[in-house]
Amino acid sequence: MDLKTLQTFQMIVKYxxxxxxxxxxxxxxxxxxxxxxxxxxxxxxxxxxxxxxxxLRLTEAGRLFHEQSTQIVKQLEQIQTSLSNLKLxxxxxxxxxxxxxxxxxRLPHILKEFSTQYPHIRISLEFGNTPALSERxxxxxxxxxxxxxxxxxxxxxxxxxxxxEFVALLPDRHPLAEHPVLSPEQLCGHRLLITxxxxxxxRKLEMVLQESGQSAVDTMEIGxxxxxxxxVESGFGVALIPRILAVEASAGTTVRELEGNLIFMTSGLLCxxxxxxxxxxxxxxxxxxxxxxxxxxxxx
Length: 300
Description:
- The chain is an alpha/beta fold.
- It folds into 3 domains: 3-87, Winged helix-like DNA-binding domain superfamily/Winged helix DNA-binding domain (Arc Repressor Mutant, subunit A, Orthogonal Bundle); 92-161 and 266-293, Periplasmic binding protein-like II (D-Maltodextrin-Binding Protein, domain 2), CATH 3.40.190.10; 164-265, D-Maltodextrin-Binding Protein, domain 2 (3-Layer(aba) Sandwich).
- Helix content is 40%, strand content 23%.
- The strands form 2 sheets. Strands 3, 4, 5, 6, 7, 8, 9, 10, 11 and 12 form a 10-stranded mixed sheet that branches. The protein has a two-stranded antiparallel ribbon with strand order 1-2.
């Protein structure tokens, strides 16, 4: 038996008529009759019989079969709908990797809007740094990632979308707070709070400092970028952080511009080169993030 035959049987029971069932299923009546004959032969039991007024009624076997097949039909119809939505990219499971601060400060409202448009697409977020996310993409553990520029190999495809511009965050009473704009050279002699060694933001910062001749800067490593604000507030030192992190500066801290927009980090979408363009639901989310985040690559 197949789904169409079960649906036909349900229609016959619902309307009590072969003719009406044929109309609802867009069949000729002979097709409905043949389906029922085949179904009863497969089951080895009579399901329907004519009453005194030629009305159809269920036999005992028919009542049992109708009762137990109703849920089967509903489940099979749901499976068909789910598979159809999956094929169209309207449903599915997308696994994406994200770095900070984009994960906490850029994605929440974007993903909320996306989920409103595509409620049947399930999204899983994995947090990490760019090298770790790149490795997981290559292994097939993530569909794509929102991250900084990776060390590209032949296996990866990166599409730059925007730049995270850096600003200086420092305690209100810090000696550098009297300057409206800071240069990398002015950081010499002051403790700089930095992220972990594997963080691309730290690598970028170290490169800029080296280019300005500040290779021997007093530093303190803080493993979490989002925790830097709290340590600045406590007076541990100065932190160079993405501007988006400084929008809501903690009490007791102040934000200063950096001279010449020298420090910024390009971010974008990363996936396996062999998987681009992505398929189905992953492509829907990829395109949506591209539209929402692709506001230009020049620092503000």
